Amino acid sequence: MLCPNDATGLDFHGQDISGLGPLNYEAQRGMYLHPTYAVSTDRVEQGVLDAWVWAREFKDAESKRYGIKESTR
C-alpha cells in the first residue's frame, strides 16, 4: 500500500465565511487542504485516509505571522 499526499489551496475569495485566512497573497481568502490517499501497488485507488484543513494566520502590522510555522505543518 502506498500513501501519497498532496496539498492544495481552496479559494473562497469574495464569500462571507468565517475562519478563512490568506492564500498566496493577503487579499485572497481560503484554506489549505492536505489529503493522504491510499493506493495499492497495482495502482488501484483505495480512498482517502486522512485530510487536514488549515488556514494561515493574517500578518500583523510588522508583516509577521504568528502561530505554527508552515514548515512544521
Describe this entry's structure for a reader.
There is one protein chain. The chain is 0% helix and 37% strand. The protein has one domain. The chain contains no helices and four strands. Strands 1, 2, 3 and 4 form a four-stranded antiparallel β-sheet that branches. The model has no long low-confidence stretch (mean pLDDT 88). With 73 residues, it is mainly β. 1% of the residues are buried.
Task: Explain briefly what this protein structure is.
The chain is mostly beta strands. It has no helices and four strands.
> How many distinct folded domains?
1
Count of alpha/pi helices: 0
Low-confidence runs: none
First-last Cα distance: 24 Å
Nearest-angstrom radius of gyration?
15 Å
DSSP strand count: 4
Query: What order do the helices and strands follow?
Result: EEEE
Q: Write down the overall geometry.
A: elongated
Features:
73 residues, mainly beta, four-stranded antiparallel β-sheet, 37% strand
Helix and strand arrangement:
Layout: E1 8-11, E2 21-22, E3 29-39, E4 45-54
Antiparallel strand pairs: 1-3, 2-3, 3-4
